[in-house]
Inverse folding.
């Protein structure tokens, strides 16, 4: 019995020592584990930051020749969880709108969240590596783009007058050599107003210029080639003698090239399709009457569907559009009337211009410039978002 | 015979066992004390390291955005460069570091064993007197090295005319901590490429 008791005390001492050692060992491990965890977090945070920064550069490159308005309307996601190295990056593009803008360096875009009218865009990039996440931001400025004459700086311009009623509004600069008449929803113009005559007070968010010198709108000459060709699709009648094009079907497809008609008459709910990767120039000498349907412009580029009212005879272009449309109209001797829903992006120049809504007429900033559309980083605009 | 063993310990036995036991206890206590000191050192070093890391990361983040100014004030300054003054132990730059739309004048400098940060937000006409905060303690040295775009070192203090050339800043911080008479030093180094240089 005694022997066992003696053995027991040794066991207890050894056990106590072991427990003490184990506790110490555990404490050491905790300290070094914490240190290791800190280092690992730091590595991941650095990687996440570099990914976010790389995302910005990728985005600036990716934005080339893209239609910013389409991107914005689709939510602005340029990259979503793009894998690179140990993690991913996501980049979104937003428009420079209130309340963050205007800043002294960057004005607020009159076009609102979905319409880039001034070329400025804000890129936000998030880099992620496991739990680590870092975000950086930069402002970019687009320049270049399709070569269109400077007259296409206007969202809408009426040689004699400009009128808007109901919920037919404008985004971008709007002008007339005559006077403007507004009724219905306000503001009518999100942007600047320019008039040789008068602009009713209180309908414009931007600068109002009245009694301004007239802007010259030269006539567009009609093609010297015969009328035609007809677009492809269904329900299309084309009279090569009179030059009248009648669209009664569901689809009319215009390819890249020049078209010439005396009149376009469209009934029913069919769609006029613009080409992709090129421009259809449609010359119409007297009249366009649309009583339904709209346009489909897959590239969402206004310059892909150019309608010219040619010659100096008067006539009426009645344009409907059930969906968001991109097109330009230059018809300085024609009365242009917009009806129907769906916003129309582009530039619309007529003798008189009347927008009855409910769709808006909005300027497409990408109409101006020339050369490939590229985006450059605005100096002094890079920051990390904490 | 059994009865004799059971009756008690002999003096010798008691002395020997006490000696052995005290030997074990002394050894154990020494072992524990060394280890606990070592643990305390480890913990204190870890805390200092963490402190230094945070300080360095804060400095790096703010120096990285040097020149960030969407308020347009920078263009009106006497020195337009993002970095306004640069020596080997302090750096002064302008940046909207808290992204509130107001340009700030920020200085990082070493004073004694501390790294201090002076902050002065633009008041519309000038940078007013700055408010100072402590970024890190236990700092043995803060060394700043400046590089141009080509990677060449720009001698510090940087001449006013050369401030515009600073494209990259290397920040080296050595923190030291003394625990139980033992001094540990912990060097940290980070390279910061300034994004908003023109």
């Amino acid at each position: 019995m005694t022997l066992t008791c003696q053995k027991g005390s040794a066991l207890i001492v050894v056990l106590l020592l072991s427990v003490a050692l184990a506790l110490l060992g555990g404490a050491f491990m905790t300290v070094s584990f914490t240190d290791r965890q800190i280092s690992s977090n730091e590595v991941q945070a650095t990687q996440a930051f570099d990914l976010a920064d790389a995302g910005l550069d990728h985005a600036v490159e990716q934005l080339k020749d893209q239609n910013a308005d389409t991107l914005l309307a689709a939510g602005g996601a340029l990259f979503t969880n793009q894998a690179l190295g140990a993690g991913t990056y996501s980049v979104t593009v937003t428009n420079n709108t209130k309340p963050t803008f205007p800043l002294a360096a960057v004005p607020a875009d009159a076009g609102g969240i979905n319409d880039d009218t001034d070329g400025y865009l804000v890129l936000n990039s998030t880099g992620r590596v496991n739990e680590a996440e870092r975000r950086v931001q930069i402002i970019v400025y687009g320049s270049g783009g399709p070569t269109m004459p400077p007259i296409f700086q206007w969202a809408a311009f009426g040689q004699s007058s400009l009128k808007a009623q109901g919920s037919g509004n404008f985004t971008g600069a709007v002008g007339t050599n005559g006077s403007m008449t507004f009724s219905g929803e306000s503001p009518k113009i999100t942007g600047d107003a320019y008039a040789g005559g008068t602009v009713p007070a209180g309908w414009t968010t931007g600068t109002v210029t009245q009694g301004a010198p007239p802007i010259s709108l030269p006539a567009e000459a009609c093609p010297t080639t015969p009328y035609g060709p007809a677009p492809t699709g269904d329900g299309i009648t084309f009279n090569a003698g009179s030059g009248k094009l009648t669209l009664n079907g569901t689809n009319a497809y215009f390819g890249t090239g020049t078209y010439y008609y005396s009149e376009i008459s469209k009934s029913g709910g069919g769609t006029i399709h613009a080409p992709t990767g090129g421009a259809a120039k449609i010359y119409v000498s007297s009249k366009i009457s649309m009583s339904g349907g709209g346009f489909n412009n897959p590239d969402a580029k206004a310059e892909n569907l150019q309608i010219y009212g040619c010659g100096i005879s008067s006539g009426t272009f009645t344009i409907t559009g059930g969906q968001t449309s991109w097109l330009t109209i230059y018809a300085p001797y024609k009365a242009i009337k917009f009806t129907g829903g769906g916003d129309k992006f582009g530039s619309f120049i007529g003798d008189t211009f009347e927008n009855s809504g409910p769709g808006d007429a909005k300027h497409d900033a990408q109409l101006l410039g020339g050369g490939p559309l590229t985006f450059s980083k605005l100096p002094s605009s890079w920051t990390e978002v904490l | 015979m059994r009865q004799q063993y059971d009756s008690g310990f002999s003096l010798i036995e008691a002395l020997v066992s006490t000696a052995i036991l005290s030997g074990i206890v002394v050894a154990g206590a020494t072992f524990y004390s060394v280890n606990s000191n070592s643990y305390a050192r480890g913990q204190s070093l870890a805390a200092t390291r963490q402190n230094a890391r945070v300080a360095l990361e804060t400095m790096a983040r703010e120096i990285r955005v040097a020149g960030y100014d969407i308020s347009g004030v920078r263009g009106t300054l006497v020195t337009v460069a993002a970095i306004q003054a640069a020596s080997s132990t302090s750096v002064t730059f302008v940046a909207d570091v808290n992204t509130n739309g107001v340009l700030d004048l920020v200085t990082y400098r070493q004073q004694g064993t501390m790294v201090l940060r002076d902050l002065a937000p633009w008041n519309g006409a000038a940078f007013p007197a700055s408010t100072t905060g402590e970024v890190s303690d236990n700092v043995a040295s803060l060394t700043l090295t400046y590089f141009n775009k080509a990677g060449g070192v720009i001698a510090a203090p940087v001449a006013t005319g050369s401030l515009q050339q600073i494209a990259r800043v290397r920040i080296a911080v050595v923190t030291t901590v003394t625990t139980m008479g033992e001094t540990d030093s912990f060097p940290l180094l980070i390279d910061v490429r300034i994004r908003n240089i023109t």
In short: The longest strand of chain B covers residues 168-179. The two ends of chain B are 100 Å apart (CA to CA). Chain B has a mean pLDDT of 88.
